[in-house]
From TrEMBL:
Protein name, UniProt field: Mannose 6-phosphate receptor domain-containing protein
Signal peptide (UniProt feature, chain positions): 1-17
Coiled-coil stretches noted in the UniProt entry, renumbered to this chain: none
TM stretches of this protein: 238-258, 279-299
Span list, region Disordered: 136-181
SUPFAM superfamilies linked: Mannose 6-phosphate receptor domain
The keyword Cytoplasm is annotated on this UniProt entry: no
InterPro entries reported in the protein's UniProt record: Man-6-P_rcpt, Man6P_isomerase_rcpt-bd_dom_sf, MRH_dom
Record's subcellular location: Endomembrane system
Amino acid sequence: MKSSILYSLFFLQYVAAASDKPLKPCTIISPTNRFFDLNPIRRMPLKDGEKKAKGDSDGSWHAKGYDYGANFTLNFCGPVVEELHDVQDLDKNLWRNVSAFYEDGKKVYAIGLENTEPVFRGRKLILNYTGGSLCPSPKSKRDAPTILPREIIPSDPDDEDDKPSKKKPSGDKDKDKEDKTARRKTTVISLLCDSEPLAKTSVSFVAAVDSCTYFFEGRSPYACGGVHSAQQALSPGGVFGVIALIAILVYLAGGCVYQRTVMHQRGWRQLPNYAMWAGIWRFGADMFIILTSSCARFMPSRRGYSRVSLGHENGRRGRRNEDENRLIDNLDEEWDD
């Protein structure tokens, strides 16, 4: 009984260790234990000499901007396929990591860099890109209201010292400047499940907040989730085999202990149900002997050797008869003399 418990604990620890393996990039397990893999909807550039598959679109995913005045290009869990140049407010070594961008005239604005870790906000599957081009300052917005400074009229000349200064300290200016430079364009993609039989992946633009944060909605069959195949280290047949092996070990161990301690058996007789297994072994041995002996008669080599041996024996018998006759004749002649 104790051995069965130990084997069961070992099996559970093995399965738990297999389930703790790190996930691949662009995969996630939901709070409801469903597995999501977004790698199939990631567009990859064609290799040298590789032809485009039938039904595949050129380049990355595209979303129409409608009233925003620009169309968007993005990819899932990876940089865009297109080769970018002169991306605004980004170092040249980061151009190849841009996962979403749009063009305004001849200028290219990045709205997020590559990210391979989707997250869950409740039950919403979210893919977030950060670190794009700089967000525009509030002064450059068309709808930003212009607020004039209010003039303070002192009621007493002695209160002039209490008049607040309109000039800001240099430290505050530097701080405001840092805050403006720290704000960069970001992208938020909300992925929804599309379980239609002929459904295809699509991306649509939802809104832009302050020309700094862009919201998209993606629909795809790959956003429906499934069973994590890597979590199950053994197949159903393997699980059944492990259970059967544990049962056999428990049967042998328990039977040997019982036969040795209670029945005081020694040697092979310690095995549980020794008489039954011995009878099965003898039956199998007898059947093997019967089959091999019956098949041996049909072997040509055995038949040939038997013929040679029979012929040799007949020759020896003939020579014996001649010798006997010759001896009898000699005895008859001596008797006559």
